[in-house]
Design goal:
about 10% helix; four-stranded mixed beta sheet
Length: about 150
């Protein structure tokens, strides 16, 4: 079965931009997306985001600027069991981590950065995707949960 991931593109709150594949600008707010399972999405809705213990960019909350790309995760879960959480993020101070073994790849927060951004096609993420890691979950406001629709 095939699924469609759709949202209302007109529901961006005032003062909030769409990131897409663009470089995030310090101290701006953006709509971003977090792909997870349906069960985890409901748990996050109830209790909020929590930092992951580790990851490609160290601890933080991992997000994407594009719904379709966020819907690819988690890759090991059937698409019918996935959900994407749509959020608004105040990115604060942003650092670009643009290659493997970047000197701040996992320590960026120690240098005063709030968000680490991996640009697309930088050799860091599978199939050239961008990724964002936000240190403080309190910088993230949940808008809604998007579920796949069978087509």
């Amino acid at each position: 079965m095939y699924y469609q991931w759709a949202e209302d593109d007109f529901d961006v709150p005032p003062g909030v931009g769409r990131l897409g594949l663009s470089t995030p600008i310090d101290d701006r707010k953006y709509v971003m997306y977090h792909g997870t399972t349906k069960g985890n999405a409901e748990a996050i809705r109830k209790s909020g985001f929590h930092q992951s213990a580790d990851g490609m960019l160290g601890p933080g909350v991992y997000l994407r600027g594009d719904l379709q790309r966020a819907s690819l995760h988690p890759t090991e879960i059937p698409e019918s069991n996935r959900a994407v959480i749509k959020v608004v993020v105040n990115v604060g101070k942003v650092i670009a981590i643009n290659h493997q073994n970047h000197p701040c790849q996992k320590t960026w927060h120690n240098y005063g950065y709030d968000t680490a951004w991996v640009p697309p096609n930088g050799g860091m993420v599978m199939i050239g995707l961008e990724e964002d890691c936000v240190w403080d979950p309190n910088q993230i406001q949940i808008i809604n949960i998007i579920n796949p629709t069978p087509v």
